[in-house]
Amino acid sequence: MIEMNIHRNKIIEILAGFYLQKPSKQLLRLLKEFSLLFKEDLTADETFHQAIDSLHEDHLPEAIQFYYDLNFVPGQLLKKPYESVYTENSFHGKITSRIEEAYLSWDFNPKKIIHQDPLLKENAQSDHAGYELAFIAMVMTVVPDDPEMAAFISERRWLFKLGEDLISSNEPYHQLLGFVTIEIMKIFQQTIKA
């Protein structure tokens, strides 16, 4: 497992950025480099290595199309990256309201995040994976060891399933995003238990 050499909030902030922005050449390179931090932990995983090896700039149009399908196109095979979809099988469930209450208590407005896809900003609801991760990063910046935030993070188990679904997608950019999501959540789960 990698050591937390950079602040935990920055790790989560980087991860949130991958969910909130349309893939670009810069994000593709950053995701590939970020993924290599976990190479030692995933040495036996053939899918991880295939995704790393096949992710090149000429793959960008496929990654962008998958991003749009994942976030905006109804009826795709993968579940949309919303907690309510994963935990309640609905697009706007009770969890969405609880997430919004948590945001309000910390004066967090996901629509004010600067680096996000304008289409996502216009259409996403509060329990989108990127928004939840950005919220965690913001709170960890203000109060690094807040017990309420530790509880909030431990309740985000649905992100493991999202990561697994992305890994099964056969699209290298999002496969790597799935691996990174799972590995980062493992680190945070272990940090909370410690």
Describe the fold and architecture:
With 194 residues, the chain is an all-alpha fold. The protein has eleven helices and no strands. The chain is globular and about 45 Å long. Residues 1-5 have low confidence and may be disordered.
Structural class: mainly alpha
Total of helices:
11
Indicate the low-confidence ranges by residue numbers. 1-5
Series of H and E elements: HHHHHHHHHHH
The percentage helix is 55-70%
> C-alpha Rg, in Å?
16 Å
Question: Biggest sheet: strands, sense, closure?
Answer: none
Give the integer mean of the pLDDT values. 86
Overall shape? globular
Q: What percent of residues are in strands? A: under 5%
Distance from N terminus to C terminus (CA atoms, Å) equals 15 Å
**Number of distinct beta strands:** 0
Question: Which structural traits does this protein have?
Answer:
mainly alpha, 194 residues, single chain, 11 helices
Question: In terms of topology, how is this protein built?
Answer:
Elements: H1 8-20, H2 25-36, H3 46-54, H4 60-71, H5 83-88, H6 94-105, H7 118-123, H8 129-142, H9 147-154, H10 158-167, H11 172-193
Task: Give the structure's gist in a few sentences.
The chain is mainly α and about 190 residues long.
